[in-house]
Amino acid sequence: VDGKFVSVDDCIVTQNNKTIDINMSTRDKIVENVVTDALNGMNVLVIENTVNDSIDFYNELKNYMIVNGYDMSDFPIGLLHSRFTTNERNKIEDKWIECLGKNSKNRPHGSVLVSTQIVEQSVDIDVDRLYTRLAPVDCILQRIGREWRHNRKNRPIDKPITTIFVDSFLDINDKTTVDDVNHSFGSGNVVVYSAY
Prior knowledge:
Layout: E1 11-15, E2 18-26, H1 30-39, E3 43-47, H2 51-67, E4 77-80, H3 86-100, E5 111-115, E6 129-133, H4 137-144, E7 161-166, H5 178-185, H6 187-192
Helix pairs in contact: 1-2
């Protein structure tokens, strides 16, 4: 604010007549929470800002499940980003819209879709829980629009909760360098959103 950094603790945002709890976390704490949420019946969306980060998260998620003895068929897991061919991407989008779209008839009891910002506008899905990499506020609001998008009964969670994550938190002071900030946000994210 006024050219200074501010600290943001947990907050509440209202968008389209829904109230969303927003909290912050570091990237290293997210995978376990995502798996727990899906096992508890939540349909979870994880949005990374770069294709490489989305692939890394997807692989880390699968590895976490294997190492911790979870069955890979416990819930559907998917990856969606812009490096898929148009045909592959359309098939993936159709599959997830069929599962999580407005008129889905076979909504899974728990799932995880890892994606990039391509889901912000073009993919009409409705998730119970959102984890998103820090991004400009207009992008965050678009991402939040995927959470509790349609009226549904019997959600496995009482209210929408969005977790915004970074690689690490910064203690901002007069010795903080640009490299410190880049490390906190993640180098790929600094490139994607350099204008911000």
